[in-house]
Amino acid sequence: MSQFKFGCTQCGKCCKQPGFVLFDSDEQAKAAGFLNQTVDVFREAFLVELEEGWAIEVEAGHACPFLLDDACTIQPAKPKQCRTYPFWPEISRDWKTWLFEAAHCPGIGQGRAYSESERRALEEEFESTDENY
Q1: What is the distance between the alpha carbons of residues 4 and 95, in angstroms, rounded to a whole number?
Q2: Predicted pLDDT at 129
Q3: Alpha-carbon dihedral sign for residues 38, 44, 46, 49
Q4: What does the alpha-carbon distance between residue 85 and residue 64 come to, in Å, rounded to a whole number?
Q5: 87 φ, ψ to 5°?
Q6: Could you tell me the residue range of the domain that residue 56 belongs to?
């Protein structure tokens, strides 16, 4: 298979795509602590409750509320969904999908090549769940 190369350009485009960013209970606590808030205050201010758990909803034409000047304001506490992008199984397990995603992410095809084991580890991290969403 071709090499999966990626180097984040910090363009913020991934943070401007509509959808949901899930925060498991540990991620909620970490982000809330980073912001000097309680989990309840963090949930009230930023998250919506879905069947799958708690998430930020990014609406079309908007950005993640933690994106400021194309930089993540909770970088040290961002959730695994953000940390592992673009190595989500639905993107990185198929070469054609990976190339398609490059239209939205200028970092795909740039930077270093990820080994098969590194790619799988990131996919597994993304898929790991906390049962207390």
Answers
A1: 8
A2: 64
A3: positive
A4: 15
A5: -90, 50
A6: 4-60+77-127
